[in-house]
Each structure stands twice: as C-alpha cells, then as structure tokens.
Amino acid sequence: MKLLVTNDDGIESVFLHELVAALVKAGHDVNVVAPVTEQSWTGASKTRAKPVRSAAVNRGFNCPTWMVDGTPSDCVNIAIAHLLPGGPVDGVVSGINVGMNASLGFILASGTVAGAWEAAIHGLPAVAFSQDVTEEIYNQLKERGTPNPELAATLKFSAAHAAALTPKLLAATPKHSFTIHNVNFPSQCRADTPLRQTVPARLFVPGLFSPRDDDGTHRLIWRIGEDVSPPEPLTDRACLAAGLISHTILDYTKLGF
Fold it and tell me: Residue 37's closest CA among 52, 22, 26?
C-alpha cells in the first residue's frame, strides 16, 4: 500500500522511526511527513496565524521524507495537497505516539489521533497507533530521548503489530466514511499479545493546570482522570490495564444527530 505516515512527537521520535522501519520492511510504499517539533495535545488544530514551512529531509528512512513546522493536521493536509509524489495514498498512519491515547478525555486532544482524523476529512482511511508507557518511563524518555532496553524491545513488537494491522484496517475501511482506527499497545507488548475490540473509556479530567503562580502563569499537570465507565463493553483503558492491545473504531458519523 502507498502510505502517508505522520506523528505528533516530532520527526526525531524513536517511536516514529520504529514504525516507519516496520512498514518499509513489510513492503509498503511509505512517505513520511512529520512535525519538526513535538505537537502533543494540539488536537486537530491547524496553523492559521503564520506561514508553515515544509522541507525535504533525510532521516535514514529509505523513503521520501519531509518535516513541517506545524501540527499533525498541517502535515497531513500539506502532504496530500502538495508533497506526495506519484499520486494519492491508500491511507494515513499516525504514530506511534509516546504514551497511550485512550478514553474520551484524551482522544479528542490527541495530535496523533488528529493526524488520522485529517485523513478522514480528505476521504481517506486512517489508523492512529499509540504505545502505553508508565509515568516514570515517559519522564525518562523526555529527559534522554531514547528508550531503555525493555521499552525498546516492546516498541519493536508494537511496530511489528502496527505493520501487520495497517493493511487490514485500512482495507476494511471504505473511503469517505469519516471513520478512523485508534490502536493502543500495552506497556509490555509482545509478538503474541492479543488484540481486543474496545470503546473509549468515559473519563473526567478536571484540573489539568496548576494554580496561578506569582507571575500570573498556570502550568500543565498530568492527571490520569476519573474513569466512570460502566463495566461493559470493554474500554480502551481496561484493555490496556489487562495487558492487551486495544482497537477502537472511531466513527464520526455517529454523533447523535
């Protein structure tokens, strides 16, 4: 398949590099268009107040690669309209995100999911991949940029799962359906880790900012939120807690109107 790959952690993310390597190894025609810097929690925002710069780069992917100084939505929009060689792609792959993108409280804020959603509003099928990590591991990644050996092994398994799932999920999704796939890998993912169908957990996430400081500023604070999901059906959060791969189909036509 001809694929456009993006992410929200930036073009230097090891998680992106592992995903691209797995997709190329699987024989796909891969094109990478990723943000210059991290764009986490930007949701589906597009850059409106300044020009957005794109540039062809070489990051050792062995495939056409560009970086864009904007959001994941910018990347997909600009790529489809202006950057991709040889005609349209079969679908868009976003990720692998550093950290899970699970629950209603976080899916809509996710730049990774938004990269897939931008594909959907271009009429294309898309899938977003995310890797659950502990808070300790997340902080270590932000400090040094490289995963420890255990996470590196997990990430290779997750990338292999992503490469195997991508053609199946994209082929099963009609174009112009406004539907995307949200896949989350557990913190310890292996070759035989099962996949389960899930729904987004119902999560309240209040108080994400610190009190006003002396200089008048508030700073973002990570909170897990309050899960008020019913026992059934299986939610993405519960699935990850059980050590399983979560697959949620996000159908944006079913919004209650």
Answer: 52
